[in-house]
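quick one
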Amino acid sequence: MLYLTRKEHFNAAHMLRNTSWSEEKNVEIFGKCANKNWHGHNYNLFVTVKGNPNPDTGFIMNVKELSDIIQKNVLDKIDHKNLNLDVDFMKDILPSTENLAKAIWQQLEPHIKECKLHCVKLWETENIYAEYYGE
Ligand SMILES: [Zn+2]
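structure w/ zinc ion:
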């Protein structure tokens, strides 16, 4: 079994806020991400597929095709967007790194046919990232 990863980058705004909590509790739990006037992150997205290389190409999957799938189903929908307001697949979902990684998986998985999606790793900052393996 071999693993192939495509790295992508996008920028997006969000706000983390639980409307059933007080302002103080939101700030306590979410820190700067609770800012009512929004803020942005520079996200790095790593999409890893797994499989055995096709004997004719040596590829698990054509990486250009993987890039196109990510572009069409994820980046076109979230790059330079507000995750709370603009993104159909994040509707009613708190846009934490964890929830966004899972939602990105759900966007990509149905389109990867010649091998299997293995991992979606999403870096929100240099120091924080989330990984989702489909379960
Ligand atoms: Zn944030």
